[in-house]
Design brief:
Blueprint lengths: L1 H10 L7 H20 L2 H19 L3 H30 L4 E5 L6 E5 L4 E5 L6 E5 L1
Antiparallel strand pairs: 1-2, 3-4
Amino acid sequence: MRFRERLYALLNGRNGLDALSYTLLGLSAALLLVNLFLHTVTLVVIEYALLAWVIFRFFSRNLAARQAENQRFIGFFRAIGRFFKLQKNKFRDRKTHVYKKCPSCKTVLRLPRVKGEHGVTCPKCRAHFDVKV
């Protein structure tokens, strides 16, 4: 019981593992597998650096900074995911719809593919603009 109390006291107020830490651990494991075949010192150094960064993040008491790092990481990958989803939707709808950006707020709008010039109102910023399809 005494060991458990000491462990709780050690980990109390620490950052722990989050999405960035899990990704760094996965990247380190992938580099380890690649290095089984390449046998380079550079990859070993990178693996240890990634593991040291994970350990630093795990035991850090500066929760605000670690959470901000994690939120930036999640936001970055969310933006990448949105980009690829938009490309998939553009390909899926290529015969029936056209995608145009609002000139004022840069929101991507999905419009029916009807030839001619049309007036469009952006649902986000309510700006009115003309689109030629």
